[in-house]
Amino acid sequence: MTRAHELLSSPFAMEQRAWAEFVCRTVALERSDPQAFFLLLERESDDPELEVRDGVAVIPINGSLTRRESFFSGGNYPTITALFKQAIERADVRAVVFNIDSPGGDALGLAELSDLIFSKRGAKPIDAVIRGLGASAAYFIASSADAVFGAREAIVGSIGTIMTLVDWSKFDERIGIQEINIVASQSPRKNPDPTTVEGRAQLQEEVDGIADVFVRSVARNRGVSVETVLSSFGQGGVFVGDAAQRAGLIDGIATLDQVVAARAARRPVQFATPLAA
Prior knowledge:
2-enoyl-CoA Hydratase, Chain A, domain 1, ten-stranded mixed β-sheet, disordered N terminus
């Protein structure tokens, strides 16, 4: 199994179009320069620095999200976690605002981050502002805040998970490579074959299980039932601005500057009401 295959075969919570681009970019890089791919995959970041504006911590959640730092991540969960913990602990920070523009990313590690944010409600005001994309994993994080705001044109939703398995057998056959896997007889489900009915069903079960955690967490975070998330939150689709507010995914239309200014002044956020449908 290649490193790209290993990376992509993990469950992801990412908007479909961004996911397709991510898959192509990942595979192309590994095939063109495997050594560079490996180095970029394992890249480590410097210690994060918290941005504080007038007593309000602004935490960026941008680009493709991963559970560890790499070339492929615009943001990663350990860094977001570290920044959030700093914001909660620092005495000079009175409120936290997540600044979101992301199609989502890795599904693993998301629930832990969401639980952490949710557990700190009441310690300080926690808001999320979706400026562009707040899809899938990014929306999972946003929903954990006390309140979620979005731009009028913000794209919100894409609740669910996806897994892509790349079949290299035809390509490897052309260059004379045959992959042979020997699986322990005690572990017949260890290496499911997605080309068989049984193997595909096993992998579907895995993706569905992680999606169930996603749905239940969003329901808890937004104070609605699981049935409401399943029926009214888009079923994997997205909403734009006002439609997202009407569906209950966000609380209002407001800009990042408006939310930061309100929290700095210790007053409620003034947000726009939806335009007529």
